[in-house]
């Protein structure tokens, strides 16, 4: 391992794999290492044996769950927004050719003890059981305003300024009730909490437009999901990196981050071998994750925790029209919390489990000392649960931007139900490493060339 690289990437989570793919395309010489023997890191999809080995090492998978190879259970539940930034990266890099997608059948929101489909147009709002007759009229006017907004035409602005007026003022302008604000802010704009209400309305407007355009693209829901699980995404970007000369090493323990005398990055030691590079990019678990690193420097801090319950069901979730896949959002106000609860369910239709099995993951940001109790409202909606695996994971964020010591650390995966925040992290790290913005444009594929 006496070869020198431009970049060493540690961890094969989706964020790291996208970055190694993009940097390889940019001509960087990349070495990618992971202590695990599978791709995906925290965002992996595991077969049944790997899954039980991770959560219950002393127990074999029950025979009635079917064949090992039928499973690809996600450790972190996220769907892809059809018109979102991740799709743009997949198109830009031509990684789409390695993947097949299926639509998520339904998007639901919880209100007053029951779940209903999320309305995203004035027609759906008019039919929705979420609102009374007069509120439907007001919601219709709100959606017409969003769809009719033209930046250059003040007549479409109704006296509102999206860059100055808060979302609270926009809601008040249309007289929308708190329950309606809940599903707009949390099920359409996909905010985790209510902090957005007092901020300028522009970002909320853009988030709702993203949701509605994604919905228009597919019809049933704005989400798509890769066949064989989310673990296919990092593997596909790893392939991209390899095509452009990237080197991968799985099952490689990382024993030390080697530093120069001035504290800057020098290389990585694995056993008796040390490999050198100009910089390192990696997930927080390789950099002390809350503890001081070799040089006594604190490089990452804990910024909250996420609780997730991976549940195996033998039936679809009740009240979702027998859907084979759904997202359900429980807005925080509905259950007296500060953060929303998310439910993501997929099934054998997505090649992630055996026939007649459904995998549902309930997650939220931890607010108390009893995390599992916090997801009870979500677990309650699932009906009878065959088996349940609960994890509590810290959310780590880097302390520094990495420009000084050439150590670039990514963020942990948050509780959001989509990949938009992951892409924000990718764009942020890419800009710090390359000194320029990531520009997404469709490259000519090899066949077109």
TrEMBL record:
InterPro entries given in the database record: FAD/NAD-bd_sf (IPR036188), GDP_dissociation_inhibitor (IPR018203), RabGDI (IPR000806)
Cellular component terms (Gene Ontology): cytoplasm
GO biological process, one term: small GTPase-mediated signal transduction
Chain coiled-coil ranges: none
Family annotation (Gene3D superfamilies): FAD/NAD(P)-binding domain, Guanine Nucleotide Dissociation Inhibitor, domain 1, Guanine Nucleotide Dissociation Inhibitor, domain 2
Gene Ontology MF, one: Rab GDP-dissociation inhibitor activity
Tree of life domain: Eukaryota
Family assignment from sequence similarity: Belongs to the Rab GDI family.
Protein name: Rab GDP dissociation inhibitor
Organism: Suillus luteus UH-Slu-Lm8-n1
């Amino acid at each position: 391992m006496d070869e020198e690289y431009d970049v060493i990437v540690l961890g094969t989570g989706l964020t790291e794999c996208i970055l190694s793919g993009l940097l390889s395309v940019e001509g960087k010489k990349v070495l990618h290492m992971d202590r695990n023997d599978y791709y995906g890191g925290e965002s992996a999809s595991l077969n049944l044996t790997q899954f039980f080995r991770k959560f219950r090492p002393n127990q074999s998978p029950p025979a009635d769950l079917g064949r090992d190879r039928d499973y690809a259970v996600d450790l972190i539940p996220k769907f892809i927004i059809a018109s979102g930034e991740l799709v743009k990266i997949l198109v830009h890099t031509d990684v789409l050719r390695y993947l097949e997608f299926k639509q998520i059948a339904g998007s639901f929101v919880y209100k007053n003890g029951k779940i209903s489909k999320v309305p995203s147009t004035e027609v759906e709002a008019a039919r929705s059981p979420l609102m009374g007759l007069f509120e439907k009229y007001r919601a219709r006017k709100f959606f017409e305003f969003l769809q009719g907004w033209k930046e250059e035409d003040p007549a479409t602005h109704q006296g509102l300024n999206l860059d100055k007026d808060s979302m609270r003022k926009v809601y008040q302008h249309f007289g929308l009730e708190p329950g309606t604000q809940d599903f707009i802010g949390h099920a359409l704009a996909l905010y985790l909490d209510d902090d957005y209400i007092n901020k300028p309305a522009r970002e909320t407007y853009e988030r709702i437009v993203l949701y509605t355009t994604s919905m228009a693209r597919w019809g049933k829901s704005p989400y798509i999901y890769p066949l064989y699980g989310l673990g296919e995404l990092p593997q596909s970007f790893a392939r991209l990196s390899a095509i452009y000369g990237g080197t991968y090493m799985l099952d490689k323990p990382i024993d030390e981050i080697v530093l120069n005398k001035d504290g800057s990055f020098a290389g990585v030691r694995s056993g008796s071998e040390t490999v050198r590079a100009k910089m390192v990019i990696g997930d927080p678990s390789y950099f002390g994750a809350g503890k001081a690193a070799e040089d006594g420097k604190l490089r990452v801090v804990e910024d909250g925790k996420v609780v997730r319950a991976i549940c195996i069901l033998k039936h679809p979730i009740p009240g979702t029209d027998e859907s084979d896949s759904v997202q359900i959002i429980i807005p925080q106000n509905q259950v007296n919390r500060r953060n929303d609860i998310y439910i993501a369910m997929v099934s054998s239709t997505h090649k992630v489990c055996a026939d007649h099995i459904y995998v549902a993951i309930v997650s939220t940001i931890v607010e108390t000392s009893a995390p599992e109790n916090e997801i009870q409202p979500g677990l309650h909606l699932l009906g009878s649960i065959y088996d349940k695996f609960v994890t509590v994971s810290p959310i780590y964020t880097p302390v520094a931007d990495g420009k000084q010591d050439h150590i670039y650390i990514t963020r942990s995966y948050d509780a959001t139900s989509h990949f938009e925040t992951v892409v924000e992290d990718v764009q942020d790290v890419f800009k710090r490493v390359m000194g320029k913005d990531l520009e997404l444009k469709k490259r000519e594929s090899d066949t077109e060339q």
